[in-house]
Amino acid sequence: MKMTWWSKLSIICFFLGISCWIPNLFFYHSDNPPIFILLTPIIGGVGIVLALKEKKEVVKGILMFMNLTVTLSFGLVFLVGTLLFGP
After folding, report:
1. Closest by alpha carbon to 66, among 41, 40, 44?
2. Which residue ranges traverse the bilayer (predicted)?
3. Burial of 55 (0-12, 13-18, 19+ CB in 10 A)
4. How far, in Å, CA of 4 to CA of 69, rounded?
5. Which domain holds residue 16?
6. How much is the pTM?
7. How many domains does the chain fold into?
8. Is 29 within the bounds of a domain?
9. How would you class 5 by CB atoms within 10 Å of its CB: exposed for 0-12, middle for 13-18, buried for 19 or more?
10. Which of 27, 14, 21 has the alpha carbon at shortest distance from 62?
11. Closest CA to 14 of 59, 53, 65, 67
């Protein structure tokens, strides 16, 4: 199976989205939050749009699911973190 250009870009967006918020799980400081963490939902949204350009339905669904989980995990991680450890 040959991957299209859109699929490759969508997978890159997936890994970029993860790489934006993983360091904040370990090095987050509330007085000095890094601005690049806000890029996670934006990068995930771009990945979803790129996945929509894929012609194969199965690949499109997998890519959309991957990027949607990155986009939603951003909020989920901070919601659970706030509930467990406080603001």
Report:
1. 44
2. 9-28, 34-52, 64-85
3. exposed
4. 22
5. 5-23+36-85
6. 0.77
7. 1
8. no
9. exposed
10. 14
11. 67
Residue 30, domain member (yes or no):
no
- Residue 31 belongs to a domain: no
DSSP string, the chain: -PPPHHHHHHHHHHHHHHHHHHHHHHH--TTS--GGGGHHHHHHHHHHHHHHT-SSHHHHHHHHHHHHHHHHHHHHHHHHHHHHH--
At 78, list the tokens. 């901070």
Is 67 part of any domain? yes
Q: Which pair of tokens denotes residue 13? A: 């967006």
33-73 pLDDT tens trace: 666 677 888 888 999 999 999 989 999 999 999 999 988 88
State the distance between the two ends of the chain, measured CA to CA, in whole angstroms: 47
Tokens read off for 28:
């987050």
